[in-house]
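Notebook entry, cofactor series.
This is the third protein in the set we're modelling with a bound small molecule. For this one the ligand is zinc ion. I'm keeping the input format identical across the series so the outputs can be compared line by line later. Sequence and SMILES below, as received.
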Amino acid sequence: MSIRHHLSDPMLIAYAAGNLPEAFSLVVATHVSMCDTCRAQLATFEAVGGAVLAAESAALSDGALEAAMARLGAPEPALAMPKPKHTDLPAPLLDYIGGSLADVKWRSLGMGVRQAILPTSKGATARLLYIPAGQAVPDHGHRGTELTLVLQGAFCDATDRFGPGDVEVATEELEHTPVASSDGACICLAATDAPLRFNALIPRLLQPLFRI
Amino acid sequence: MDKNVIETVTETDFTALMLAVRDRQDKAAFAALFQHFAPRVKGFLMKSGTDAALAEDCAQDVMTVLWNKAALFDPARASVATWVFTIARNRRIDVARKARRPEPEALDWGPDSEPDQADIYEAGQETARLVAAMADLPDKQRVLIQRAFYGDLSHSEIAAETGLPLGTIKSRIRLALDRLRQSMS
Ligand SMILES: [Zn+2]
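Returned structure with ligand:
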């Protein structure tokens, strides 16, 4: 897999710091599972976290060490890593979908486009998008930040082509119309911290009223 | 004596202490690690907005995890400080009950992969090098990095913050690693 589009440093730092909404963490963890470059970057930023931790301290109360020693039991044995079952999904996504892409419960958005919202905590939304070959993602403006990770197939927009493993970090400045590549359907994992804006049933103008 | 030299010596010792905990359940080694790291975990969590009493409880929890999950420590991949940081970060997320944090798929090293001594040495030096690099930064830049890791800055605030010297920090690590590799080959 040749990945050309990677996570931004701010995304990796916020993930290393444990300060991303769950939906963004899911995209970051999934991309890192597929990408050695970002895995190495993440390790570097976690090392910066180690240095931040190492540089300051606060005195413990008396007896803290004794209390800690009293708590020591038998350590947990190292578990042999279970061989991943045959699946087309990276491990972090597997926890949210179970099984494979074939098990996803899609909902139609019209024009053959489908989505499945994944259960994550508030603050950002994660969903899978299925875009038929050659189809454009309808009505797709941004507020906030959107992360889009290609799982299968490819899409193009005005900026570039995105294939499997590629991730696009889009801010509100980017007005783009992603179009699935003509040689097959594109399946993406997308996360956004703004309310979802596209919906086939409700005209875009009304959306601010409904807070979709 | 040069401050960096002191840091370098201690950092290597932490790796040895952690391996004694991992491989021999050495309680004296654990006590030494506790004396050094528990106050730092407490300080880190207090800077992240946790009150002193809860921060101390969490520091205890973090050090207990270090003992219980010692088998997971890989000296070729991270220094002890970095490993402790990831445990403290995860504890902070649990306490805040904000959200799950999905983890990347673990790398499969295979059963017989013997860690490379040079990798262990490099990972062990990493924290000392970064502490030194950060100490050299102007105060304003250092504070920004600290705030990012205390969880004070969101991803968009980090992105908007042009004063964050990430390039500087990263190029210094790279430079130091290159020099180390050259001197060892
Ligand atoms: Zn990447």
